[in-house]
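hi! just following up on the protien thing from before. the input was this:
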Amino acid sequence: MSDQTLLATGPETGRLSDRLTLRRLICGLWQVADLEKDGAPLDPDAAADALQAYADAGFDTFDMADHYGSAELITGRLLSRYRDDARRPRAFTKWCPEPGPMTAEVVRAGVMERLARLGVEKVDLLQFHWWTFEHPAWLDALHEMTRLREEGLIGEIGVTNFDAAHLAVALADGIPLVSNQVSFSLVDRRAAGPLSDLCRATGVRLLAYGTLCGGFLSNRWLGKEEPAEIPDWSRQKYKRFIDTAGGWEAFQGILSAADRIARKHRVSISNVATRWVLEHESVAAAIIGARLGESEHRADNLKIFDFAFDAEDHERLEAAFAATRPVPGDCGDEYRRPPYLTASGDLSHHLQAIPSVFTAEPVPGRKNRMRVSSGSVWEELAGYSRAMRVGDSIRVSGTTATHGSDRCVAPGDPGAQATYILDKIAAAIRALGGSMDDVVRTRIYLRDAAHWEPVSRVHGRVFAQIRPANTLIEAGNLVGEYLVEIEAEAVVD
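and the predicted 3d structure came back as:
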């Protein structure tokens, strides 16, 4: 088949929802920020022409974000050429606000900026990123985005870099999410675990980025020595993933296995890497970087749809995986806890700079005592604090999945409530100078003993390495819609 015939067909199509179709290969525009890192923006018309070439070849779904340089403006220039054309490309973007109060005005301003930069009346898919779930305003933002979806300013809502636990909280709290954009590759296989299980159960689809590990998963690196210097942000990021997954030798084992499969099917290593991701049931599409005007591989990328894996191919890859280490944690953890595997490297300073939802204050007339309050009217009326620090000890009151002053999060889902509660406990402990690593005891109260397993699994996700002393109690009479209550004690060494 000739390149021209390949380009005429375009990538396969799929659906994120009844209202939104997409190409199964999406053009990712994150490299616009890298191309503009010297402070000089790309020429918008020339860059739009480059995007036009992709769209004309059938690669007409584009993914970007508010912080990808001028990517939204360039895409907006392209979309302006299609105002009355039903073939207008799909434009997916992300809103990545700093944690803080999420009022209706703040959320609307963020959405309206996306609309203005893209020059559209409705964003096809608006994806939301949040830095730390210890700050609960992410739910406020998503609920307000849901209202703006009903208003017609947003077509569909997605999230990016959410782990399975917090995706479950959002869904159980009534957010109509259709997608979660996460890292997924032969090197980073986290998304094939609990996140894919949740997606199969709920219908949420994954948009996979990093499928080529910044270009490392290609014939170019087969049998090559480990690079000493890496000039671009994307490869710096994915080299961290390679190092974490076992290092260069283990990575070469994956490349070698992919090469055997590629030669068998007469395709490239990159084709094999992307096809492996796309064959996962939970994955709607893979995002392939578009470095405008450079290294365009449209015809080669379309060969992804010309073959499929057989049992021998999977066995060969599984043998290579066995010589690697799993990337720790769940999807998105690289932004929130060590090892930080982002383009910026260690983000601990950024996370520490994020204001806590709680404020510590001294207890009047008592030395070495601090407390934090959640602001509930009941704390003053009933005479208690969310948490208290006495010397090196921190005690957190029985905590429920109360959002704000009076709303129960995720009614009916004990696991989701437990996730929200532990985030709340972590925030209280952090405000008093400790961390979840300092927790030495927890007590869990369940309305129904039958809920022990989902709640215990959430507790295990947070405390598997810490393993505090724990008591599990069937309470039977928790107030309102609350299915779980948890208290904690920590000692700051």
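The first helix runs from residue 3 to 9.
Residues 1-8 have pLDDT under 50 and may be disordered.
cheers
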